[in-house]
Structures are given as C-alpha cells and as structure tokens.
Amino acid sequence: MRKLILLLLLAIPLTASHRVLQEGNYYVANWGSDYTGDGSMEYPWATLSKACAEVFLAGSTINIMTDIVDNNRAALRTRINVQGMGLRRRITTNYKATGTQDAYLYLYSSTSVPANGDQQIANITFDGNNLSAYRAIWIGYRSNVRLHDCTIIDFRDSGVHFRNQVGWTTPPAVYATGNQVYNCEFINCSYMHAQDPHQLRLDGQSGMLIHNNLFDQRDRPLGQNGKNISWTNVQKIKIYENEFWKNPVEVVADGTYDWPFFMELWMTKGDCEIMRNVFHGQHTIDLGGFQNEIIAGNTFSIKVYENQFLNAARVDPVMLGPSNYSHNYAITVEGTDWVNLSITNNHFQRYGYGIEIATSYETSSIPACNYLHDQFYISGNVFEDMGYATYPYSAAIVLINEPNDPGYSNTSSNWWIVNNVMTGGNRCQNGIRFTIIDEGTNINIKNNIIDDFTGNAVYVTNRSTDVPTTLTNFNVTYNDFYSNGSNTTYIKPEITQVGSSLTTGNISAAPLYMSTTNLAIQASSPCARAGIYIGTWLTVDYTGRAWLNPPSMGAFEVEGETLAMVTTASVTAITSLTAASGGTVTSDGGLAVIARGVCWSISTNPTIAGDKTVNGTGTGTFTSYLHGLLSGTTYYVRAYATNGAGTAYGNNVLFTTLTEGPSPQDRLYQHQQIILIHNGHFLKP
Question: Up-side HSE of residue 566: CA atoms within 13 Å toward CB?
C-alpha cells in the first residue's frame, strides 16, 4: 500500500505546494493559458490578472516572460512582486477604469492604517493601447511599494496614483511611507480635461522618493495634454533628477484650456524638496492650496533648488478675451500659509514670468481666507532673457495680490530676494514687480543684478480699489541696475512707506558677464565683492561656490577667486576732520598680501583709486587713520587687501563727521603720526 501511495504522488503534476520549492516564482507568457496553466515556467498563465488572482504567498514574484495582452483588472496583493524578465516586457490593455480610484493594475488595502506593501513593480511597459485604457496603476493605502524601471504609455486619463487620504482637503491620520518611483518613463498618459488628470499623483504620502524618471506629455492636440505630477496632503517628499517635457505652449483660445502645469502641488505639510530637475516648455510648478502648514517634526514648507527651466525661444501668451491673457510662469506660489519657502539656484530661461507669488479671492475650490506669505528666500537664481516674444508686460519676479474678500487680509513679510541675476532682453518690463495690498513688512531686495528691462528695475503698485497699503522696512540696496528703462525703484505714491531704503549701495554699471550666455561675472566686474553680507543662511552661489563676505552682486561669486579676504572695523574717534578705522585680513587667498589699509568716499563702495591709507602687509588686524575729511559729511569706508590676484574689499561702514570746526588742540592722524595744529600751522610734536 505504501508503495502505491508513493507512486501516485510522483504522478501528480506540480501544484502550489511544488511552486513553493521554486522559491515563490510564478510565470506569465503569451503562449500560456489561464485555463490549463499553473503558473510554472513550463505551464505559465497568459495574463497578469490571472496571476494576481491566483498568487497568495507573501514574498512571491510574478515574472512576465514575454509581451502579453490583458484586458482585465489585475488586483495585486501585498508582498507580491511583479517584474519583467530580461527585456522590459510590454503589457497591452484595454481595461477601462470605472472611476478615479480604479486602474488596470490595482493595489488596494482597505485598512485604516496603510498596509505594508513590501513589494516592487519593475521592468514592465504598461501600454494603454492608443488611449483605449483609461488609467494604468492605482496604489491605495499601502506603504513600501517601489515602482521602477517601467514605462507608462498611452493611457487616456492618468498614469499612476498613490492614494492615502479620505478627501483632498483632509490629511490622513497616518501617512503612507517608503513608496518610491524611479527610473521610469511616463509618456502620453495625462488628459487635461479628465477628472483627476496626472501622469503621477501622490496623496497622503510621507518620505516618498521620485527620481531619475522621464515625464513626457506632448503627443496630444494642444489644450489636451495634462499635468505631469500632482499632490495633496504630503510631507517630506523629494522629487529630484527627473526630466520633464511639455509643448512650448499648451493653452488654446477656444475656452477649453486649463492651467498648463508641470506640477500642481496643494496642501503641503512641510519638508518637501524639488531639486536638480530639468523642465522643457513654458509650463508651471504650481505651489497652491489653502491648508499648507509645517506640521510637527518638520522645519520648512518647501525648497525648490538647482532646477533648470529651459526654453529655446520666447513665445507670446494666448489671448483668451479682451485684456485676458494666459500668462506663462515657471513657478507660481499661490494659496496661503506658505512659511519658510525657498527658491534658490535655479535657471529660468525665456519665460514670460519666472516666479509669481499670488493670492486669490473666494472661488468654487478656494474658500475666503487670510493670506500669509512669510519667510520667503529667493536667491542665487539666473533669470535669462526673460519676457515674451512681443507682448510687453512681464517680469522676472512678480507679486499679484487679488482684492481681499470682506473681512480678510494679506500679509507678505520677511522676504529675501537676494543675489539673483535677471536679464530682460529689452522686452521684459520689470525685474521685480509687486502689486501689493494690505501689508508688506521687512522685504529685502539686495545684491541682485537687474539688467536690460524696459521699465523700472523694481516697480511697486497697488490696486485702485484696495484698502490702504503699507510698506515697512522695504529695502532695495546694494544692487546693480543697468541698462533698464529706469535704473530705479518706483513705489506708487499712495502706498505708505515706513523705514524704506531704496538707494544705499546701488550702482548702475555694466556687470561684465563672462559671455552673453554665461552670466557669471568677471573678476574685474564692478559687481565683484560689491554686495552686502546677508546672513548665515546664504551659503553657496549658483555653481556651489561659497559666498564671500562681502559677497558679489548677482548669482555668481567671482570666478577663479584667489583674492584675499578682509573685514572692515567700526569707525571711532570721529571729529569734524578725522576718524579712525582699520580692518582684519582673514585670508591671503594663497598669495602674499602686499598692501592693506582702508579707503573712503562720499559714495558707496570706495576703492583704492580714491582716498586711502596704506597700513602694512600680510594677514592680521591693522588700524587706519582717516584725514582730510569734510565737516558734517557722510562717508563710506571699507578695508582693502591687495595680493597678486587683485584687490579685495571689506564691508562698507557708514559714518558722519562732526559739524563743529576744529579747535587749536585738534589732532590729525596721518599715517600713524600725530600732527598738531597751532594758529593754523602744522607742527610735529
């Protein structure tokens, strides 16, 4: 009897228990069968949907051996992987999703806390069969899902959706974590007018990594190509080293257009980063929403840095109606409660507008609310050849405050727009243009180069219907405004100014770029080391070179910098004709310091071509005595140090001589010697 049982067992085909011996590998091929196959390599299934229905064992992998066709939904359980074998395998489907929470590949966990997916989807092309299928992949309420080395192509409405929220205005009780998308291609899978269009959407995610992907949405008629990425209620997201392609202009004038977005990012909860991506086309990263906040454990809202927004040629906005144009912005900051936001070291090329900061009024999707934009850091950016082809009104950076809803207010405070370079190609109207209402407090525009705009370098106005507007501590200082229609700052007279500074340290001189396409400055540029120290938060320039103290104007520190580093001492012993100062040479720049001292002038940024002292050589601290000053006059003084690379200057120090005349006992300090005046004659002591 025992021998008979053994013989019967040997005659039984491989079953699920035998597949465990294959280390949890299951197989799908176009020559397999969903009816007679068992998922083995010898007898594979024909479709992924069949494999997903049959495989339960955690840790298993469904291997796609060949290109296949599958028109049924494939519902994938947790801890089960799907991968193409060898070449990237193609799954072509006609599956028509029943709604926005459905797709061909369906990963759904119905728990209140995101389930641990612990799985990957890799090396597969998901093909929507020329837009016959609606949505590619839906991943609901799962953590630790990795989508990589895949192509999502030709789905009608959307590509991939990671969902983990009840509604778009309600953040999750527990965030999904550990999800990743990398080394993928998203091609022609976002329809602008579909419900919830996107190539990739994230909801309720924390710590998600999206990198080294291609997002290309250019294949449909103009006005139909939807956004690349959208999110709501997320934190700690990193989107980096991806490439985005959209048409140069997507908007059409037939009234069916929608906003042309690379990304639409709402309800951000903090510590999100968008960096080192390349964007092609006149489209927008939209930072929106009315419930943005920095939740516990996070320190900033969002950082956008080291990205390139590239356009080969200028375009014009599309006219949608009388005086109504669809404008092109690289980055739009709209919505409210944006605090500690930074846009740094990016390259904006040939946009109508580089950065727009905007508020709204009540709409069907945005409630009436107070608008707060606080602690904005816009630095180290290159705005190249900005403006439209022929339409005249545009700016590198623009603030647009819409009229307040009754009982609500707008506050813009603690802004640092510093060390940017902006060129307007003699078409763009303003470097910086504000239409501001209510309050603007502690707004700093410093160390910028604003070059070749048709109007004022900086222009500030408000709406005729606005409530009274007040600017407090509005500082436009230490900039180079050159070759503009007006190298000045205009502020509408009706705006109340408290503590404004609009001229200190500003110059109007050719910046001396390295070339017409390289906006770094030459060592001999008047902008070199002519800025003012900003703070410890400003660390590196557009190229990653450390800023010096004082820094140069523009987005680049001086190339090939080997100058010494020197700081200026405070001014003491001030009389009507004399004063004392000095400085410290903190670094010789690798070359011997052959002269040091201070120079002074009644204009900012004095140089050694004018009045100066010579106080020795080498590094270290020195004291200098200024002489021949005029009574009751304001002077600028700064230390200098000369080495083989040239002359470096310290920070400007401002002082004013006394107004009374000298007494017979006044002492003049000259070259560290004391000279007495007696009855109008100079006497050596």
Answer: 37
